[in-house]
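Supplementary Methods S3. Complex input for the AOF-bound model.
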Amino acid sequence: MALALSLGRRGLGRTWPNPAVGCVIVKDGRILGRGWTQPGGRPHAETQALTQAGDAADGADVYVTLEPCAHHGKTPPCAQALIDANVGAVHVATLDPDPRVNGQGCEMLRAAGIPVSMGLLEAEALAANAGFFARTQRERPFVTLKLASSFDGRIATATGESQWITGPAARRQVHMARARHDAVMIGGGTARHDDPSLTVRGLGIDWQPARVVVSRRLDIPLMGALARSAKDVPVVICHGGDGDAVLLRTWQDLGAILLPCALKGAQLDPLDVLQQLAKHGLTRVFCEGGSALAASLIEADLVDELVGFTAGVAIGAEGLPAIGALGLGQLGDAPRFELDACRAIGADIMHVWRRQSI
Ligand code: AOF
Ligand code: ZN
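Predicted complex, serialized as structure tokens:
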């Protein structure tokens, strides 16, 4: 199952709206088939592994990180494929909450006389597909907030200088994290100020996460890096629906996908933004700031994971804080995160925190 989990993770960032499942077929201590959900979400992991195993799957043990599907999509259900292959037993890490499956995959297998065991490495499977579960059960993507800051939590000097606070090894880690997410998300201020491309570079991979910009009035540079590349790598703009019609059409012509979102006061409602992104199919969103968007997500308790890169440099109180004002009454009102991992990356420290409720 550990191998199936690591195979499944290969698909992260590429299988949305589907989960990134892994599957291993074993008989007499030998691995006969390995599969993972293919880019775009199909074929599913089990059919990949079954194709590899061929007739040898007869009587074999199947380890799969998510309950095999029970519904007819573009191909017949995986549960049926496993039955047809006459496998000996199926070990499932966790149930598939998709209403079209939701226990029915296991039921089909059991009804055909195939023993099914549940819950092996379940916590790992839930974490690996946290995006799929968030979208299916909470109708929003799993949100990771990344902050690359100075020792004192600043992301730029008073003059706006921000390149580079953390070093090349940390930046490489950020590119790897981008590749494992369905989308990278920033606020309009960051798009205007930094003109980022938000693409994955230097890793030799051949796919790109979508780029999401949250900007009520579509106030994003029309000659900027995002505009120039919108035809090659998707740009999704979450806007207030009350923006300039010409601007809207211009972005459409540039190839951007426009998602009108609800307002909360004068700002875009961060929950509705995430819900619209989930409707669009996104399951894992990697937010890279700026401080206003970060604050609105934290304030609404919509951040599931924090990834911090902290450099050994102090910028001081005049610098730009990583997270804008939260208007907290008491410390107890601040969403608190639990430390998940911490390690040195080049000259910096990377720390990963998980929301306690997840
Ligand atoms: C599996 N193995 O590798 C994956 C599964 O649109 P479809 O027909 O591809 O179905 C998508 C649903 O299939 C998805 O919501 C989830 O329930 C399941 N994904 N199932 O048995 C896989 N990716
Ligand atoms: Zn399937």
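The longest strand covers residues 337-345. The chain has a mean pLDDT of 96.
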